[in-house]
Structure formats: C-alpha cells, structure tokens
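[job 0412] stage=complex_fold ligand=zinc ion status=START
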Amino acid sequence: MISRIKRKISGTLQALRGKGNHGNHGYCSICEHPVYFEIEGPWLRDQYRCVNCKSIPRWRALMSVVAELYPRWRELKIHESSPGGPLSDKLARECPEYLPSHFFPDAPRGQIHGGFRCEDLMAQTFKDGSFDLVITSDVFEHLPDVRLAVGEIMRTLRPGGAHIFTVPWYRTKKTLIRALVKDGVLQHLEKPDYHGNPIDENGSLVFTEWGAELPFLLQQWGQFPVIIHTIRDRALGIDGEFREVFVQQKSYR
Ligand SMILES: [Zn+2]
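[job 0412] stage=complex_fold status=DONE, emitting structure tokens
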C-alpha cells in the first residue's frame, strides 16, 4: 500500500517536472517568482532551463546582478547590443527606455533595420553619456576588436553607469585568438568556430577565447575597474560553466 502511494506521488512529481529529467525548484530572476529548473543534459550552461521562461543560467545570473546593483533598472536607459532570448524580452517588456541594437553589415549605422537600430559596438553613433546601463550577453567573443568596443561602451555610459555582461571566460588559460581582421581582411588562426546568432543563420564567428588576461585588459582599455560576480546557487538556477558576470562601472570622477 505504502509503496503504491509512493509510486503515485513520484509519478505525479515526474508529470509536474515534465519528461522525467531531474532538476529543482527555485527562484528565477527573469520570471521573478518560484519556478522549476529542469536539467536537460550534462552541459548545464545550455541545458538547465527555467520551465517557465526557458532561460539558461547565464541570463539568470546577468539579471540577478542587474537587479542587485541597479534595483530601479526599469527606470534606466539601457542599451543592449545583439539581444535575443528571455532576458532581452524581459528588458524590452518592462523597461520603457530599453534600446536594443544589432549590427547589420549592409545597413547604415544609427538607422532602424529589420525592427532594430543598426549599431556597430566598435563604432557607435550614440552621443557620449547616452545610457545608464549597457548589456551584452556573450558578445565579446565575437568581436574583431574588443578594445574599440570597450572604449565605445564607456564613452556612451553616463558617470555611475555600468557595462554588465557575460562572456565565456577561460580563466585558467591564456587568451586564444582564433581569428582576426588585418587590413580589412578576415584571417583564421584556428579552425573556425561559430555560435548561434539570432539574426544570422550561419552563426557568429568566435574571434577570441578570453583567458586570464581579460579583466586586466578591460581595465586598461576601459579605464575603469572591473568586478566579476560569480554566482553558483541552484536555488537561483545558476550553475554550470562560464557563469561569471562582469561589471565595469564608469565612476563619477
Ligand atoms: Zn524563468
């Protein structure tokens, strides 16, 4: 009798959890209420999803840091470069002064193209001090010149504002340049590696696997200190590889 009840309870729980994979209950920073986080496979970075908003850990980590450091983020001017997914959807829904941009190589910079403002993160058309926050989510591995992008992001931030972002960070390795642009010509130094891109079915080429030098380079290029938030907390659905959230704040000096 007891074992039958047990089986029934466990069957009901499995049904609630979906396909019988394991996971846990917790609080999703994007949904902002209790949810179930489902583990769909061993690579938690992409396979540990909120069953409600379908977010993955790095988006929840980024949102947690934004909400903690800038609790009134809904009232701020936010620029997100290369948006996509439930975090971007939340910002678009809840922040009236959210401005998403994509880079379309064939469209004029500063103009609307396909519903998005066309901006090259390395050569932006925004005025100095335009934004309180700049968000980039796994963008810095895809840029041929991150030094230029950091300079531009810091230029377009107001004093007290910050660039809050994620990037795959190989913190115990040396930075690996996989590709570069020299005299306007793309050169591959390693076998080309592409990641998914919401506006290009061919994906985005990985130019750099950032290693241990990254925070020092950011500080040197941006002229402001960098703080790295590393959260590992299953109660927030945050676990897996590359969970770091980088914050480079433009001080008031
Ligand atoms: Zn969620």
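Residues 10-18 have pLDDT under 50 and may be disordered.
[job 0412] exit 0
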